[in-house]
Amino acid sequence: AINAFVNHMKQRSTKYQYQSGFGNEFATEARPGALPVGQNSPQVCPQGLYAEQLSGSPFTAPRPEMKRSWLYRTLPGCKHEPFTKTDNGLLFRGSFDALEPTPQQFRWLPMDREAFLNEKDNSVDFSQGFITQAGAGSPSTRAGLAIHWYCCNTNMTNKAMVNSDGEMLIVPQQGALDIQTELGWLYVESGEIVVIPRGVHFSVNLPDGVSGGYICEVYEGHFQLPPLGVIGTNCLAYPRDFLYPVAAYENKTTTFTVINKFQSQLFQCTRDHSPFNVVAWHGNYAPYKYDLDRFCTINTVSFDHPDPSIFCVLTAQTAVAGTAVCDFVIFPSRWMVAEHTFRPPWYHRNCMSEYMGLIRGSYDAKPKGFKPGGASLHPIMSGHGPDNVAFTNASKAELKPEKLADTMAFMFESYYFLNLTDYARTTNVEEDYWECWRTLENHHTKFLEQ
User: How is 44-78 classified by DSSP, letter by letter?
Assistant: First the structure.
């Protein structure tokens, strides 16, 4: 068994090679000499390749915000049959603004993924496994975001997907994702994240069988590292821990199906070749992965509970600086040492929407009710905080140094009001979630009686 594991890791190490550094300018080739020297689009590209630019930002964007890569491929992306509509499944189509709003707090139990897949004839690949939970705006206006669950158990054989609507941050909760992209391979396990930029073709294989997790899709901007301000030059997510693929291609002639998410509608077309035919590329617009356990957590060493922004891994900003389409925030294992302080998250009403998920372990504000694979939504200005058990225990606890171990919760925090899909309103809902605060007592009364 040990030898088999070692051989498996050796195979992975040769297939999955990475370049590091968030937002770097990369240059990589699967065949020596495939990259042109000194220019992007020569009259004749080396090795009979086509030059294709993949633009992730307008040509006139400020230079620090420019996103683009040059791809050198065996055939360009325009060679395919016409698109036709295909089944959206549980992927929401339309404007989220048309959905019925509610200020009610919601919490969802983990979905029974096996039962869900059985209902779908037990054959669902990643492109078919989107389950839209909530969102704001629409892709057609290039403003807002969508939050999905995904659930799948089938490899995308001779099949690829491309998202024309936005950039996807994928958070696996169960099962690894073996992702082939136009720009190379990424192997992403639970406890890691992967970001697939708008317009990048990818295919997902499932080495562990059933896989499920969460997706935040932003219709505007790109995920970037948050500014550190007075924190200084270190801590939080280090740029060098973000890993990008090296060029890897297949010169395969076969019927290939491509699924295009375009204005929330799924379309499909066929090609007579693999879209994963990029022999070399250079630029700064590419998919990447990050291990959440690499996050350098900071916390108070004196008193009080800092704002959760100190746990921000990535942020996608609106046009207003400091105001996020989505802040991706994590609550990892960490030491709690604050003196004379209520250590769990405080009670809160927020000008931002808070959608939370749990990858593993438990969450200190809801130690019993919040389960791995589940989620919660606390709408803008709706009160939330520790349940009565957490409040009582934390109010009486001996404040000695304590390690919160083997836990990983996260939050998609957004400036936008999030409206729920019909599916999210009716499926896996913890109907009595609001009762976790019902038993909170008025402790002030006994002081009035003295």
Answer: S-GGGPEEEEEESS-TTS-GGG--EEEEEESS-TT
